[in-house]
C-alpha cells in the first residue's frame, strides 16, 4: 500500500514537474525496465551440462532449438544455440516478471540429443527450470538454465 501511494505521488509529481525532472524519472524507469536476459551454454549430454567421460569433456551442442515455455507449455520465446553452444533470449520486462519466470517457466531443447551424439536418445526433450545468475546491487538479475532432464512427455 505504501509503495502504491509512493508511485501515485511520483506520477502526480511528474505531471506537474519540469521537463528536467520528467527526464530524470524516465531514466529511473528505463533502469527498472531493463530487458531480462536468459543466457546459457548447452552441452551434448543427458543433463545438458559439461561432464568428463573417460577423460574426455562433453562437447557443446550447436544448432539446437531452445525454447522458453511457460505455464501449460506455451512457447514464449525461442532461439538456436550458436557454434559455441551458447544461447541467449531477451525478454520484455513489461510482459515478464522474474519471480513468475522462475516458478512457471522452463528452458526446453527440442532438437534430439542424437543430433550431437548418435549414442544418445533420439526421442524426448531436455528440460530445465530457470535460475538466477547473480543479483548485483539494484536488484537487476540475469537468468540461465540449470541442470536439464530428459523428458519423454513434454509438459
Ligand atoms: C549449424 O548450422 C549451420 C547453418 O545452418 C551449418 O552451416 C553448420 O554446419 C551447422 N553446424 C553443425 C555442427 O551442425
Ligand atoms: C556464441 O554466443 C556467445 C554468447 O553470445 C558468444 O560469446 C560467442 O562468441 C558466440 N560464438 C560464436 C562462434 O558465434
Ligand atoms: C556420446 O554418448 C555416449 C553415451 O553417453 C558416451 O559414452 C560418449 O562418450 C559420448 N561421446 C562424446 C563424444 O561425448
Ligand atoms: C546480464 O546479461 C547481459 C547480456 O548478456 C550482460 O551484458 C550483463 O553484463 C549481465 N549482467 C549481469 C549483472 O549479469
From TrEMBL:
Protein's organism: Solanum bulbocastanum
Signal found in the keyword field: yes
Assigned keywords, A-Z: Signal
InterPro entries reported in the protein's UniProt record: Phylloplanin-like (IPR040404)
Signal peptide (UniProt feature, chain positions): 1-23
Protein name: Phylloplanin
Keyword Signal among record annotations: yes
Amino acid at each position: 500500500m505504501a509503495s502504491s501511494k509512493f508511485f501515485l505521488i511520483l506520477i502526480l509529481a511528474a505531471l506537474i514537474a519540469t521537463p528536467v525532472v520528467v527526464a530524470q524519472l524516465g531514466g529511473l524507469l528505463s533502469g527498472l525496465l531493463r530487458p531480462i536476459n536468459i543466457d546459457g551454454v548447452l552441452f551434448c549430454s543427458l543433463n545438458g551440462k559439461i561432464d568428463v567421460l573417460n577423460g574426455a569433456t562433453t562437447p557443446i551442442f550447436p544448432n539446437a532449438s531452445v525454447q522458453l515455455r511457460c505455464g501449460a507449455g506455451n512457447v514464449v520465446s525461442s532461439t538456436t544455440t550458436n557454434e559455441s553452444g551458447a544461447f541467449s533470449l531477451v525478454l520484455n520486462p513489461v510482459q515478464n516478471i522474474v519471480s513468475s519466470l522462475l516458478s512457471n517457466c522452463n528452458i526446453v531443447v527440442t532438437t534430439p540429443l542424437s543430433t550431437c551424439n548418435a549414442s544418445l536418445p533420439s526421442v524426448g526433450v531436455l528440460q530445465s527450470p530457470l535460475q538466477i545468475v547473480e543479483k548485483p546491487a539494484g536488484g537487476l538479475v540475469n537468468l540461465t538454465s540449470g541442470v536439464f532432464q530428459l523428458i519423454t512427455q513434454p509438459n
